[in-house]
Amino acid sequence: MRQDPVLEVEDLHTHFFTRGGVARAVDGVSFSLHRGEILGLVGESGSGKSVTGMSILGLIDPPGRIVSGAVLYRGENLVAAGEKRLRQLRGNRIAMIFQDPMMTLNPVLSVETQMVETVLAHDRVSREQARERAREALARVGIPSPDERLAAYPHQFSGGMRQRVAIAIALLHQPDVIIADEPTTALDVTIQAQILFEVQKLCRETGTALVWITHDLAVVSGLADRVAVMYAGRIVETGTTVEVIDHARHPYTHGLLGSVPSRNKRGEPLAQIPGMTPSLLRLPEGCAFQPRCPRATAACLALPPLSGGDHGWRCFHPQEAAA
Amino acid sequence: MLVFLIRRIAQSAIVVAIMSVLVFTGIFAIGNPIDVLISPEADELERAAAIARLGLDRPLHEQFFAFAGNALSGDLGISFVHGVPAVELVLERFPATLELALLAMIIAVLIGIPLGIWAGLRPDSPAGRIIMAGSILGFSLPTFWVGMLLIMAFAVSLGWLPASGRGETVDVFGIPFSFLTADGLKHMLLPALNLALFKVSLVIRLARAGTREVALQDYVRFARAKGLSPARIVGVHILKNIMIPVVTVLGLEFGSVIAFSVVTESVFAWPGMGKLLIDSILLLDRPVVVAYLLVTVLLFIVINLVVDVLYSLLDPRIRLGGAKA
Ligand SMILES: Nc1ncnc2c1ncn2[C@@H]1O[C@H](COP(=O)(O)OP(=O)(O)O)[C@@H](O)[C@H]1O
Ligand code: SF4
Ligand SMILES: [Mg+2]
Fold it and tell me: For chain B, is the Cβ count within 10 Å smaller at the N or the C terminus?
């Protein structure tokens, strides 16, 4: 048996009560994460990935609210935890990195200020010690001459370097879990590859588990141990990376794989999933993918359950398992 | 920075030159000071002598060049009424106006920023709505009317605060200031509040708009995800960002506070430049009016310069130049 998971999300429901109606952005999501494990959370834009990540840290603001479910950090339910306890854990045991490196660092505060405050928020150390920790963290993520760079302001860094700073901040307390919300989407491919490689290495070194949120299955295939595919607030397929990528069963996963350039034969047009991501306010009855699904039948007007087993899918007519 | 300064000073010189022409001709069009200055019983001869003494018999352009030449050496003429150099008269009154305006600005910031941030963080809460309604009132109520209300409430009915004069002053380098004595501060409070009213509303709106915008930024979300306390997020991450527009606008508005003090000083009989201006206009004391206007123009220019420098100090993106990336 493996150790107990560091993070378990159980039947999480996060809804937004907007004027137009209730948007069920996260509608029954479950997964678990072990020490050092990397989970790829994949789905088109609007499928509820970010809301899942923010829910874990208790950062959902009105009109949104966690309606039901549990987030267990080492067995402690964070949904029931008070704000003070959540603040102790945020950035300390569970850290988060966001998508746009141009916007995640405060433009009017120096990198040193933004790093030192993170250390001091959780540890009783001197300013000097905090600075030293910040310097080490910058060095660890591959920022040259960290001493000088500490005094710099965000606008003096390139996009890739800014994201490294954000990662360094996330690593300051050697957290148990990092939730990375599309941190490389805004970067160009080479820098993306470098950062992916380094984050993977750092997490392996420190035993940090990672939830890597992305809309790009290609990114996940080289990085993650397990993959969860999200559609309209639900996980529609989950399993090991090999199971999900090479033996995908859900038609939506197939659609996503079809739109990954590297998996298409050269010269063939890029396959696209027909149709649009549905508005959460007007979801179809039953399987939410049904209006876009090539395999849909009348049966799909009911909600398909997540099939059991380590490799699970939520579909009445799954694709045949590949040989 | 040096090039920037030189360019700004050159621009300013042009502005001052144009202003002095406008002011001079503008003032010339108003009434005839002789009617006010010389008693109706004076005979024709005395009148002519007075006109010649004041230089009012010469053609307009000659008067202007004489004025401009003197102005360059800092001489804006002798007050018709007080018989002392007009500039001296204005500058003598300047500290009183300055301390009043500064206290008004401090009040505006101390009241406006917290209220504005509060309203910006909770725009839909009852408190947020009340603050906004209050700021609309502050914008629309006439200064003199609020000034009278303040006097009626705090000076007449309650008797807590004096309603006129500067109170006890203390000399610093030979310049009298009120803010250094308890009695002086008491005298300042009502006029400063009155003068601050409009700016409080302005600061509330700026701070509220800034807070609403900044609170949605990713860096605020990231700050929360780092586990920072709300006090640190609001007091450092949000405040530092909203201070940039607030300081800029307030700095630029400082000139208008001094201009508005004309009304407040009259209501509260505060012996500053503004009251001097009103008195001088009533007495058609041209040199003093001209001196007031030119000193104010210079003041505006200096303020703008200081604001630009402050602005760049607050914003590292400007202070340190563009992105290296
Ligand atoms: N602040 C909000 N107010 C209302 N609805 C929201 C809000 N944030 C997210 N949502 C809803 O949640 C859905 C999922 O959002 P998100 O998790 O950001 O998707 P993504 O998978 O692209 O990260 C959105 O399509 C939207 O309907
Ligand atoms: S349940 Fe039906 S509609 Fe949904 S994915 Fe499976 S086949 Fe398609
Ligand atoms: Mg997202």
Answer: N
